[in-house]
Amino acid sequence: MTAEPRATADRRTFIPLDPSLAPPGTRAFRDAGGIPADQWHADQNGETLVPTHCCFCGVQCGMYLRVDRGGKVFGVEPRNHDINRMRLCPKGINAYQQVNHPDRLTAPLMRRSRDEEFREVSWEEALDFTVAEVRRIQQTYGNDAFGLLGGASLFSEKTYLVGKFARVALKSRHVDYNGRLCMVSAAGANKLAFGIDRAGNPFSDILLTDCLLIAGSNVGECFPVMTQYVWGARDRGASLIVIDPRETAIARTADIHVALKPGTDSAFFTSVLNVVIAEGLTDENYLAAHATGWEEVKAKAAEYPPSRAAAICGIPAEQIVQVARTFARAPKAMAWHARGIEHHSQGVENCLSVISLCAATGHIGKPGAGYGTITGQGNGQGGREHGQKSDLLPGGRSITNPEHRRQICEIWGIEESELPPAGTSMMEMVWQMQRREIRGLIGICNNPFVSLPNYQVVKEGYDATEFHAQFDFFLSETAANAHVVFPVTTWAEDEGVMANAEARVVKHNKAQDPPPGVRTDTWVMCELARRLGAGDKFDFPDSRSVFEELRTASAGTVNDYYGITYERLEETGGIAWPCPTTDHPGTPRLFEDGKTYHPDGKIHLQVVEWHPPMDPYDDEHPMSLTTGRTVAHFLSGNQTRRLGALVEQTPRPWAEIHPSHGFRNGEPVRIVTRRGSEVFPALVTEAIRPDTVFVPYHWPVPTAANALTIDALDPRSKIPEYKVCACRIEHADRIDEVPAPPVAPGHVAYPETQVSRTDPLPPTSPQGRGTSERS
User: Fold this and answer.
1) Distance of alpha carbon 166 from alpha carbon 143, whole angstroms
2) Among candidate residues 422, 285, 275, the one with its CA nearest the CA of residue 357
3) Between helices 521-531 and 156-164, what is the axis angle to 10°?
């Protein structure tokens, strides 16, 4: 390996780096203080190593994409970035394969009616048709009859454009994004309690804690590389508490595993707080100095003694006491949670109950002590910070705040009267599509036909639209139902930033040019805006130009990116916001001075009252269905279900059930909810509660977990209640077949990803103790 500095338009001088001090793959480049990592090249067979980050989850592992002499990505190597230290999960190892995959869309697809077949058309025809339909619908039914749905796997530059495009080019209030299905319960709780929406501590603080509580997160499968921090804490002697109805791989190693009934989290945490108070384990000095609402929270906790909560949660009362003592007595304790406690009609309240526990014990804002949320999507954090969420403007500004509106209108060069009011959430937009209040839609980086709950309602909503366009690089199940599909770049064919679960902004670098016929999402939005008469507001030749406006738009806000530049990100490996100036180091840990981002600087504790899930149990539906991810796949599976190694590892979904139901491994089990029924192979394991069944959600109908889930929403965050709905299980004769991913006209489904889909057995899996082995 040799260093070969190259001159670029914006950087023509470099600091030499001694390869003996920091050769690639041995030590983090930023630690050596040398040239940015993107100047390193392999000298073997013309190969180039391009440093970037994984496109999948919120850990954002560093990696190198291997580029051949012809400029094509052909492989990947782990990178010694301090997030992941040379580690990649199965998805990260295989991510590069999607870049030059034969299923890639390389020409716009179009049809004027859903009764027609798609045909490949020119960009001119696809853009003209789309703009004509936007104008027709808006002139007939009003601006708000057209909506836009973005995605939290887009770079932050593109999420910024999604919000601006909807409000300035479409002039519509209806914009939201698929992060609505991810972290918004935690976001709502964080804003209420702390006045800021992000994790309070970096991952590295986990290594310093004495007690780690993980609630509703299957870390070993959903965030595999994050387990290095868990093991590091354990090596120091830290206690581990896991709250999950399943004995996941991480729960199997815990000191305390609380297998509570789905939908009972806030009752559990309020009862833990009850014990902390009763045993005098609260930090009264901290509460008096740094919190409001404590007396009200304390009074509510008195209503949840362990005996009551144990009956609600279906666990021994002794476990509640044990968790309280372990967490409160630890010199330093941390709580991290994910979708398991957030995907509920009381998701915000669940998160608030965890915050109350941390605050009551004084475990806030210290090295090894604090609170955080593990982001699901790669840009789940950054994706909601700069305006594609229906109620937010760039910099986390509120769209209902007159001063915030004035500030953004000044930056965008529009009158305040031209800025639409707040819109509705993603699921609510689907209901509006059903009612024909929204007649047209553009979707970018999302696949609601797999990811949204209650599939039949989603299908009806999309079918009711008069026009639907979708941006994607593969033909997703949702795109296959559209009128126009725009072929856009993968993450490796453009540059931009993402903010990971720590709120650390990292830079992704372009590794290859896109295939002929493919455009960036930025180019498509700007070109549509130009044709809609707003081109002067969208004069962005590339991501860097968008980022410069984003920096300005965020300046002075809680979500301040102004001090972050592409150059600084390359030099440092990432900067945690807020970062107000270019000489500011960023803010990896919040609340160190005891102050929050509320005007009074205090934590605003909130009273939480547990209520049952929205889908009631009865004699016909006595069990709980819960859903989640598996290590080989990601979200709707539109990317991972096309990668052979990942399909071979996990070819299909299964129903994870307890042995007490009398099923044998691989036998057909029908799951019935009030939305319908589907048949899966049984994965029989003692690692799940007898009253609960688990199904991973990465597949479409007829094997879609989300054909069964309920579209009930949290009243504050509007997140769907994915993690619990009433069901029953039955013996069946035949397992539902997994469909092949959609492909463009004239393409054949990639055969290497199809072979193992017909395997009727569930995978041998790491779910936990007692999992049946395949024969």
Assistant:
1) 10
2) 275
3) 20
Q: From CA 677, how far away is CA 679, in angstroms rounded?
A: 7
Half-sphere exposure of 648 (CA within 13 A, CB side): 7
Contact present, 425 and 713 (Cβ < 8 Å): yes
Q: Going by C-beta distance under 8 Å and a sequence separation of 6 or more, which residues neighbour residue 686? A: 247, 658, 659, 768, 769, 770
Q: What is the C-alpha R_g of the chain?
A: 25
Name the amino acid, one letter, at 744. Answer: A
Report whether pLDDT(21) > 70.
Answer: no
Longest dimension (CA), the chain: 73
Residues 6 or more apart whose Cβ sits within 8 Å of residue 115: none
Task: Give the C-alpha separation, 248 to 259, whole Å.
Answer: 10
Instruction: Assign 581 to helix, strand or coil.
Output: coil
747: three-class secondary structure by DSSP: coil
Proportion of the chain above pLDDT 90, given as a percent: 88
Starting at the edge strand found earlier in the chain, the sheet holding 239-243 runs: 256-258, 239-243, 211-215, 333-337, 370-373
Residue type, 300: K
DSSP code, position 746: T
Q: Which is it for the CA torsion 571, 574, 576, 578, positive or negative? A: positive
- Chain-wide mean pLDDT for the chain? 92
Strands (E), 491-646: 496-499, 504-508, 575-576, 603-604, 623-628
- Give the residue among 433, 499, 503, 445 at the shortest CA–CA distance from 476: 445
How many whole angstroms separate alpha carbon 655 and alpha carbon 373?
Answer: 27
- CA nearest to 172, candidates 200, 198, 146: 146
Residue 630's nearest CA partner among 6, 50, 57 is 57
Residue 768 tokens read as: 């936990």
Query: Amino acid letter at 249?
Result: A
The residue-averaged pLDDT of 65-94 equals 95
- 319/321 Cα distance (integer angstroms): 5
661 burial level (CB within 10 Å; 0-12, 13-18, 19+): middle
Cα–Cα distance, 197 to 384 (Å, whole number): 9
Cis bond leading into 578, ω under 30°?
yes
Q: Which residue has the tokens 């209040």?
A: 437
φ/ψ of residue 494, rounded to 5? -155, 170
DSSP state of 134: H
Name 392's Cβ contacts closer than 8 Å, sequence gap at least 6.
Answer: 163, 384, 385, 398, 399
Amino acid present at 664: R
Regarding beta strands 40-41 and 146-150, do their DSSP bridges make them parallel or antiparallel, or are they unpaired?
unpaired
Give me 341's structure tokens. 């406690």
Backbone angles phi, psi at 211, to 5 degrees: -150, 125
Could you give the 3-state DSSP secondary structure of residue 460? helix
Model pLDDT, residue 28? 37
**What gap in Å lies between CA 617 and CA 728, rounded to an integer?**
10
Above 90 in pLDDT, residue 757? no
Kindly report whether the peptide bond that precedes residue 202 is cis, defined as omega within 30 degrees of 0: no
Amino acid at 262: P
Q: pTM for the full model?
A: 0.92
> Both tokens of residue 622?
């006595």
Q: Considering only 10-14, 201-205, 419-423, 752-756, which range has the smallest mean pLDDT?
A: 10-14
Contact 320, 304 (CB under 8 A): no
What is the C-alpha separation between 497 and 652, in angstroms, rounded?
Answer: 33
Backbone angles phi, psi at 561, to 5 degrees: -105, 0
Helix or strand holding residue 269 (H, E): helix 265-278
Distance of alpha carbon 271 from alpha carbon 357, whole angstroms: 10
Alpha-carbon distance of 327 to 310, in angstroms, equals 18
Pairing of strands 392-393, 397-398: antiparallel
Q: How far apart are CA 411 and CA 415, in angstroms?
A: 10
- Helix runs in 241-316, H state only: 265-278, 284-290, 294-301, 306-313
Whether the per-residue pLDDT at 17 is higher than 70: the answer is no
d(CA 482, CA 115): 11
